[in-house]
Design goal:
Order of helices and strands: HEEEEEHEE
Number of helices: 2
Structural class: alpha+beta
CATH superfamily of the largest domain: N-utilization substance G protein NusG, insert domain
Number of domains: 2
CATH topology of the largest domain: mini-chromosome maintenance (MCM) complex, domain 2
Radius of gyration: 19 Å
Largest sheet: 4 strands, antiparallel
Strand content: 35-45%
CATH class of the largest domain: Mainly Beta
Shape: elongated
Helix content: 10-25%
Strand order of the largest sheet: 2-1-7-6
Number of strands: 7
CATH architecture of the largest domain: Sandwich
């Protein structure tokens, strides 16, 4: 490898480290997990508690597990089971979605985060 190759390689590593540290600095760890059924928030759980709860909708059942600060869907009776295959979530703004059951499980930073700030007319 030549000198310019090493400079390019080093520059790429430095840029990747800057992007990674910026991402970690600006992501907020969540505090609560909200369960939204048909667009309505029905339950809220603390991300710090370890629980397993069955969420029943008119379309089927999903099992939510909150453990070690992470939330995941571990079981579902929907046909594709994409919600089970999604990765665990923990940061504010992340969601687990089951379209067949019209269910959204999302992480929020605080209880006030879901309040409406303003209405555009």
């Amino acid at each position: 490898m030549k000198k310019n190759d090493w400079l390019l390689f080093g520059s790429v590593i430095v840029i990747a480290c800057i992007i990674l540290s910026g991402y970690r600095m600006f992501t907020t760890k969540g505090t609560y997990v909200e369960v939204v059924r048909d667009g309505v928030v029905t339950e809220r759980y603390r991300l710090s508690e370890d629980i397993e709860v069955a969420i029943e909708t008119a379309y089927g059942i999903n099992v939510l597990r909150i453990q070690d600060g992470y939330a995941s869907v571990i079981e579902a009776d929907c046909p594709d089971k994409l919600c089970v295959k999604q990765k665990e979530i923990m940061n504010a703004g992340e969601s687990l979605i089951c379209l067949p059951h019209r269910l959204v499980i999302r992480v929020i930073g605080s209880e006030k985060e879901t309040e409406i700030d303003a209405v555009a007319g």
